[in-house]
Structure formats: structure tokens, C-alpha cells
Design goal:
384 residues; alpha/beta; TIM Barrel; 8-stranded parallel barrel; Enolase-like, domain 1; 3-stranded antiparallel β-sheet; 12 helices; single chain
Length: 384
């Protein structure tokens, strides 16, 4: 079955953009699905058995932009009420105006958290819509300065035994991804064996990362940092809670050379990232385009990193992160997260796959982010 999102020619073929009339947003709507994991999953502090996707669709001039977030279905309610009211009628070619209007509309319900996720989904949809209206790829519209973005394979859940970890990491390495990550911290006694299995599976030529998801106390994390370097680990994510900026700074200052400290995936607004960077808490900042205010928010976070010469790594959602990250100057990589790598091809046609060397290449041959929603494939998981 063929699916298309275009019913009108792009605006740049019909209008002189210097004196054009506004292109008002006609409709904003939301859908949500909860898709089961392929097996039980857990990290150092949480366990789950499904991934909830909230998708925003924004229509204008016969075109539809699509954005999404991963979080509670309550984000769909916010999209359908406060955000739809704030965005409908705004100029679809000026997503920054709609972004500011959405943040203002969420003042009394609280922006950080679910509201920020809802804003992120709509903002991504608005940027996709703008690109489709102009008949241009999203990577071009956001100011992409690179053709490809590096990824790292991410999964290795604490619910996986040594054999499962080894098999998953081997698959990524076989596909040419030279950086991989596993979860640690839930059962410390089991982690040395899981680390050995991981290193044996990937060999010495692949970078090994770990994510503790805030499972450790400060001194406990320091002790683990020394052990991790013995396994050749070069990236330690959230060794302590991401709210413990002093603890992260302690790990960054006193941890072994060659082990970068990373955090930031739970950032929902610019002040959060400003505080983390000002505290000197990380060697590499993380931000999630589906949480931090969408592409509008993500590019502002990138500017904070640029001002300090600190690398930025995108947390998850690789199909939209690839486009956003192409515009980032101090880019480290994109997280090629197992759950989202499973879910996004269920939702969309046109998904990107890593090239040799672990690179995602944003599609420059199609307008917008190049994805086509195929909802019938996930209808049985529909929540809204």
C-alpha cells in the first residue's frame, strides 16, 4: 500500500516568500500507542514492559507535519487541549512563534515533565510541516552542517543475562556500529560478568559505554569508575542522580582519565541545561529532542554547549534526532536505542538505518523528515 502526506505543491513553488501571506495552522491532533517490549527490560533504577508513543499531527495548506515523544499518554491530552488552542491559526512557516505560545499556554500546568514532552512533539511536527510546505528536507531547513551523524548502539538492559548482552552487542558491531552501551547498577554482583561478556563480544576495537541511571551513591560510583576503566569503558552515564550536580562534578573531577561523565536526558527546559553546564557536571551533555522542547529547544541547548565548547549527545528517538543533530556544531553522537529502533519502523515507512561506521544519513531526497505514518501497523496498540 502506498501512503502519501502531500496534497498540494510546496509553497516555494507557488509564492514569493518575501511578501507571502501567512500560512495558518488549520488543525492539531494527537494519537497515542503503547507497544510492548520484545522481552522484559530494566535499568539500574526502573523496569518496564512497554513503550508509549504520543504522536502530534499539525495540518496547514493541505500538508501534514508529524512529531512524537515517548512518555505518558497524558501528553496527548495536553496536545489536544492547551497546545491545539495555542498553535491553531499561527503561521506554519514560523515554528518559533508557536513554540513560545505553547510554553506560555502551559504555565499553569507546569512546563517541565509531561507538558514539555507534549510541546516537543508538536514542535517537531511544526518543523516537519514547515519543511514539507517549502518542499525541502528537514535537515536543510534546520541548518544542517553535516551529512551524517554518528550513533551508538544502546540497550544491554540489566534484565539481560550475559548471553543476551553479548548477542545484542555483537549484532550492532556486525552492522558496523563502533560504539555500544549497556545498563548497570541493579545487581552490582552480576555486573562484572556482564561487562566481561560485553568486552569479549565486541573485542578491543569497539568503544564500550555504560549507563547506571542514577543507581549509585557518590563514593560507590567513584569506586565503580575505577573498575569500569579496567574493562575499557569510556562513557559513564548518570553514575548518580542527574539532579545531584555536585555528585556528577565529583565524578568528573576525580574519576579516572579517559572516562567521560554524561547526563542530561531528563532536561525539559533551558534552565536545567544551563545549571548542569554551569556546575561543570558533565564531560558531554545529553538532551532528548522529544523532551527538551523539540527541535526549537534542542537547538538552543546546542547553543549552550557551543558557548562552552562542550559536546552534545542526543538521547534516543534516532529518526528525528538525526535531523536535529545534523545542525549541531559540537556533536558527539546519537543514541540508537533498542526500544525506539523497534518502534519507529512499526510507525513509519522511510526510517533511516546506520551506514558502515555507525552513521545515520538524514534523507535529503524527500521533504520534511522523510517519514510516512502507517498507523494500521500499530492499530492494536492504540490508546487514543
Amino acid at each position: 500500500m502506498q501512503h502519501t502526506q502531500h496534497t498540494q505543491p510546496p509553497l516555494h513553488s507557488r509564492n514569493n516568500q518575501s511578501d507571502r501571506a501567512e500560512t495558518p495552522v488549520a488543525e492539531v491532533r494527537a494519537r497515542a500507542w503503547r507497544i510492548p517490549t520484545d522481552r522484559p527490560e530494566s535499568d539500574g533504577t526502573l523496569a518496564w514492559d512497554g513503550t508509549t508513543v504520543v504522536l502530534a499531527e499539525v495540518r496547514a495548506a493541505g500538508h501534514t507535519g508529524i512529531g512524537w515523544t515517548y512518555g505518558h499518554q497524558a501528553a496527548a491530552d495536553i496536545i489536544g487541549t492547551e497546545l491545539a488552542s495555542a498553535v491553531t491559526g499561527t503561521d506554519a512557516l514560523q515554528p518559533g512563534r508557536a513554540w513560545a505560545a505553547m510554553l506560555k499556554a502551559c504555565r499553569n500546568i507546569g512546563v517541565p515533565g509531561v507538558a514539555a514532552m507534549a510541546v516537543s512533539a508538536v514542535d517537531v511536527a511544526l518543523w516537519d510541516l514547515k519543511a514539507r510546505l517549502l518542499g525541502l528536507p528537514l535537515v536543510t531547513v534546520v541548518g544542517g552542517l553535516r551529512d551524517t551523524v554518528p550513533v551508538y548502539g544502546s540497550g544491554g538492559f540489566t534484565s539481560y543475562g550475559e548471553r543476551e548482552v553479548a548477542d545484542q552487542l555483537t549484532d550492532w558491531v556486525t552492522r558496523g556500529i563502533p560504539r555500544v552501551k549497556i545498563k548497570i547498577g541493579r545487581e552490582p554482583a552480576a555486573d562484572p560478568g556482564r561487562l566481561r561478556a560485553a568486552r569479549t563480544a565486541i573485542g578491543d576495537g569497539t568503544e564500550l559505554y555504560v549507563d547506571a541511571n542514577g543507581a549509585y551513591r557518590r563514593k560507590q560510583a567513584l569506586a565503580w569508575a575505577e573498575d569500569l576503566r579496567e574493562h575499557g569503558v569510556t562513557w559513564l552515564e548518570e553514575p548518580v542522580s542527574s539532579d545531584d550536580l555536585e555528585g556528577l562534578r565529583l565524578l568528573r573531577d576525580r574519576g579516572p582519565a579517559g572516562l567521560d561523565i554524561a547526563a542530561g536526558e531528563y532536561g525539559f527546559d533551558l534552565p536545567y541545561f544551563h545549571r548542569m553546564l554551569s556546575a561543570g557536571a558533565v564531560d558531554c551533555l545529553q538532551a532528548d529532542v522529544t523532551r527538551c522542547g523539540g527541535i526549537s529547544g534542542f537547538l538552543r541547548v546546542a547553543a549552550l554547549c557551543d558557548a562552552r565548547g562542550i559536546d552534545l549527545s542526543a538521547h534516543c528517538a534516532p529518526q528525528i534526532s538525526a535531523h536535529a543533530c545534523a545542525a549541531v556544531w559540537h556533536l558527539r553522537h546519537v543514541e540508537y536505542f533498542h526500544d525506539h529502533v523497534r518502534v519507529e519502523p512499526m510507525l513509519f515507512d522511510g526510517v533511516l538505518a546506520p551506514e558502515p561506521g555507525g552513521l545515520l544519513r538524514p534523507d535529503r531526497t524527500r521533504p520534511g523528515h522523510g517519514l510516512t505514518l502507517v498507523p494500521e501497523r500499530v492499530e492494536r496498540y492504540r490508546l487514543r
